[in-house]
UniProtKB/TrEMBL annotation:
This is Ribonuclease 3. The lineage of its organism: Bacteria, Candidatus Galligastranaerophilus. Its main location: cytoplasm. Transmembrane segments: none annotated. Mg(2+) binds at residues 53, 129.
Length: 245
């Protein structure tokens, strides 16, 4: 494919994503070059996507950090970090790359492609980060805003889906990990009371470990009350110097 043909495809692709005013196609071309491609073409390694990936990784983490910080004002740093880790993981970024069709533009060696490189999560994730780096640079003074708007507008549903799957990083899970590490047992949740009407109930729950109540919680469902109790238990353990996450 000729350079002009690729530029035409880039123009169409970027236009669909809201970057119709971007005209530095050389930067996007660079963002798509896997290291195997530059080796095969015998061009300098710095012409691969690695440097743009480095930049895009930083911009992405800042974008997601800000998004989570504002959306979850009551979450502690440890939980926010774990959610962010889920979002910026190779598996997630590879899905993002495929969703927008970035996989169709990645340049790699013939051998890498034979080995299924265009489907490798690590390559797709790196290309996605490099693409963000290119957006950041080509948009000059508004680069960060462009990346932020692009992430939120294109992947908001994906982000919500990831956030809804918090069972493994919620307070109950964290407390369970703590108790299992201590003596391979689970914390015990006890329903203390249920007040209010059938459709507007408030549940009170305690959580115990080794016959000692560690926390008490309230919620509109037993599950939310258990989460609140676990959160309060973790805060108690942290004050006592027994949990430092």
């Amino acid at each position: 494919m000729s350079i002009s043909d690729r530029e035409h495809l880039y123009c169409e692709f970027l236009g669909k994503l809201g970057f119709a005013d971007s005209d530095d196609f050389s930067l996007f071309e660079k963002a798509m070059r896997h290291t195997s491609y530059v080796h095969e073409m015998d061009i300098p390694l710095e012409c691969s996507y690695e440097r743009l990936e480095f930049l895009g990784d930083a911009v992405l983490k800042l974008t997601i950090s800000k998004y989570l910080y504002l959306k979850y004002p009551n979450y502690k740093e440890g939980i926010l970090s774990k959610i962010r880790g889920e979002i910026v993981a190779d598996k997630t970024l590879a899905q993002f790359a495929t969703k927008i069709g970035l996989n169709n533009f990645i340049l790699m060696s013939k051998n890498e492609r034979k080995m299924g490189g265009e489907k490798k999560q690590s390559i797709l994730a790196c290309a996605f980060e490099a693409f963000l780096g290119a957006i950041y640079l080509t948009c000059k003074d508004c680069g960060y805003t462009k990346v932020e708007d692009f992430i939120i507008s294109n992947f908001s549903c994906d982000l919500c889906e990831i956030e809804e799957n918090l069972e493994k990083i919620n307070p109950k899970q964290q407390l369970q990990e703590y108790t299992q590490e201590k003596n391979h047992t689970l914390p015990e949740y006890t329903l203390i009371s249920k007040t209010g009407s059938e459709h507007n109930s408030t549940f009170e729950v305690t959580v115990s470990f080794e016959d000692k109540i560690l926390g008490r919680g309230f919620g509109k469902s037993k599950k939310s009350a258990q989460q609140d109790a676990a959160k309060n238990a973790l805060e108690y353990l942290k004050r006592e110097g027994q949990w430092n996450q």
